[in-house]
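TA notes, week 10

Several of you asked for a full example with nothing omitted. So below is the full record: structure tokens for the whole chain, then the designed sequence directly under it. When grading your own attempts, check the secondary structure regions first.
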């Protein structure tokens, strides 16, 4: 795989660049962003589900193909698949990116309050909108 970097839209705990560095990856050019027509759903972990009119916030981060492959080879993440999205930075740039989502969203009864609390803390530290943070359960 190439060492060339690609843009990845992260919406879960991987938004935290320190967490990424702890996974032996070198995040580059992190920027706050959002994608349209996707809603955040939390089961055991987070995933985005296509939902017309929804907006999901996250971070655009450049990583190498090898780094992305290593992240998603970790236990519990192998079912996440890449899909192309158009991310919009809060500064107004449109950036094509990869986004890793579950092929099947979690069931409505699947919950992970500890994960949701961690995610809220990351979103708050990164300065995302309060209404979005409050919507996470």
């Amino acid at each position: 795989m190439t060492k060339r970097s690609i843009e990845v839209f992260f919406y879960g705990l991987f938004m935290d660049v320190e967490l990424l560095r702890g996974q032996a990856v070198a995040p580059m050019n992190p920027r706050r962003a959002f994608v349209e027509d996707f809603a955040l759903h939390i089961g055991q972990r987070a995933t985005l589900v296509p939902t017309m009119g929804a907006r999901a916030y996250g971070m655009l981060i450049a990583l190498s193909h090898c780094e992305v492959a290593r992240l998603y080879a970790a236990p519990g993440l192998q079912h996440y698949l890449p899909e192309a999205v158009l991310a919009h930075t809060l500064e107004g740039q449109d950036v094509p990116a990869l986004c890793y989502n579950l092929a099947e969203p979690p069931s409505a009864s699947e919950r992970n309050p500890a994960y949701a609390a961690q995610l809220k803390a990351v979103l708050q530290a990164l300065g995302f909108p309060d209404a979005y943070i409050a919507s996470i359960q």
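The radius of gyration is 14 Å. Use that as a sanity check on your answer.
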